[in-house]
Every structure is written in structure tokens, then in C-alpha cells.
Amino acid sequence: MEAMNDDLAALAGRIDRTNELLERMLAEVAKTPSTHAIFVDAGYLYAAAGRLVAGTEDRRAFDLDAEGLIDALIDRARTVFADSRLLRVYWYDGARRRIHTAEQQSIAELPDVKVRLGNLNANNQQKGVDSLIRTDLESLARHRAISDAALLGGDEDLVPAVEAAQGYGARVHLWGIEAPEGRNQAEPLLWEVDSERTLDLDFFKPYVSRRTAAAYDVTGTARPAREDVRFVGAQIAAKWLAARGRDALVELLPGHPYLPGSVDQELLVEAEGLLQYSLRGQADLRRALRDGFWEHLQTQY
Q: Which of 23, 57, 96, 254 has the fewest Cβ atoms within 10 Å of its own Cβ atom?
């Protein structure tokens, strides 16, 4: 009887230690923030956004402010995944022999953005992009690097990527672009995802424009220095603060270093007017502009 009591006591001790270990593990999991990533199929984005805003899918017929749009997507994700942190934005596009174009290179240089290139065939069709998306989604989900994925795309070939990520416990949220008529996302893809939402015309209008003669001729104007652009950013920040007040500043600060899409677009347009120089595609000058804007605001808080 005494030996049996000793065995029971030893068993109870092991159970207590196991329970204590489980409680520690659960506590660590509770403290670990959720993480999300944004996956952008650029082929779908250019085609759907171009048709919605500019009335054409031909990339040569319109300009896309990719930097401003990426910031707007990050800002939207921050709202949707309120208790989560961003891992990065994955931007998938095609290129001849997988060599970056100048535009793709400028996107690759943006903070928190990873450009992944498939091939572009003789008919300007992307090849290998869907498999890249699947590889990244599956790998990140398998290694618990993300808990949620926002996928901006519409091709049925993305279904295996969604299923692979879900198989490892990640939730996949499909983001689409408003279609002027009909639907621009495959139904099987809509069936598989955990949620779906549509970004409308007002969301894309600030970032897509018909290609016309430039409002500011870059070739005829000397490129401003980064410090000059930073100073203009600070000037605009002072004007912004005077017009909107400290309550608006308090709302804006938690989003640092990102600006809401509407504020970022206002900053860009006003800076171009003051500089008489186009900042479109000038990633380093755009960053200097934002740095100056933020630095002034932070000194006032």
C-alpha cells in the first residue's frame, strides 16, 4: 500500500510538472503577436485597377503609383488585422529573363517589400508567378511566420497556394478589385479562402492615372537634393498640423512610419507643386519627403 501511494504521488508530481510546462507554453504563445503578410499578384493588380480607373488593361497607357498604393495596402491591412504586425509585402510580377525593370527595381528598394519575379513570355504573359506565391505562402505558414495572409489576386491557379497555407493553420483573406462589370476573380478561389473583401474605385483613384504629358517635366528641371525635399516635407507637415490640429496628430502617430493613403497622396501632390518636379518613381526622394513630414510632426508631440 505504501509503495502504491509513493507511485501515485510520483505520478501526480509528473502531471503537475507537465501542467506547469503547458501553462508556460500557453503564456508564451499568448505573448507572441500575430503576424500578417500581403501578397500582391501585380499582373492582376495592373489589369484590374487599370480597367477600373483608366479604362484599359494596357500598362503602357497608364501610370501606377506603386509606392503610394503599397502604403495604402499596408494601412488597410493594419485596420483589418488590428492586433497583428506586418511581416512584409510580397510583390509578384513578370519580367523578361527575370531581370528587373526600372519600375520593379524601385519597388524592390521600398522598405518592407520583397519583389519576386516570374518570367514574361513573347506574348507578355506571366509564367511561374503562381508557383512563387504558393511556395512563399506554404513556407511562411509551415514555419508559423504568419497567421494571416492578405492575397490580392484573382486567378484560379492560386487555389493550391491557398490550400497549402491553410493546411498549416494560416488564414487566407482574398482581396479583390472592383470590376466595372461582371467578376474578375475565379469562383473556385472565392470558395476556398477564409474571407474576401473588395477594394473600390475610390481606393485606387489616387494611384492610377491615364498617361498624359507630365505635369512637371523632369528632364527640364534639376533633380532636387534629398535635404531640400525633406525640408519641403517639414513645411507641408507644419501646414497640415495647423489645419487639422493635435487630435489628428494623435491619431496619425501610431501608424509611423506609414501614412494613410489619402494623407500620403496629398503630401505627394503638394510637394510636387512646391518643387515643380515629379516625384513619381523617385523612391529615395519620396522617402526623404515622408521623413521630413514625420520629423516635424514628432517634434510637435
A: 254
Q: How far apart are the first and last CA of the chain?
A: 73
CA dist 82 and 84 (Å) reads: 6
Partner residues linked to 198 by β-bridges = 176
Across all residues in the chain, what is the average pLDDT? 84
Q: For residues 76 and 152, what is the distance between their CA atoms, to the nearest angstrom?
A: 12
Amino acid present at 257: P
115 close to 107: Cβ distance less than 8 angstroms: yes
Pick from 10-14, 101-105, 139-143: least confident: 10-14
Q: Residue 116's Cα: distance from chain center in Å?
A: 14
245 three-state secondary structure: coil
Other Cβ atoms within 10 Å of 243 Cβ, number: 8
Q: Residue for cell digits 507630365? A: 214
Using the structure block, give the residue that is written with the C-alpha cell 487639422: 244
Residue pair 45/177 in contact (Cβ under 8 Å)? The answer is yes
Indicate whether this model's pTM tops 0.90.
no
| pLDDT at 146 > cutoff 50 | yes
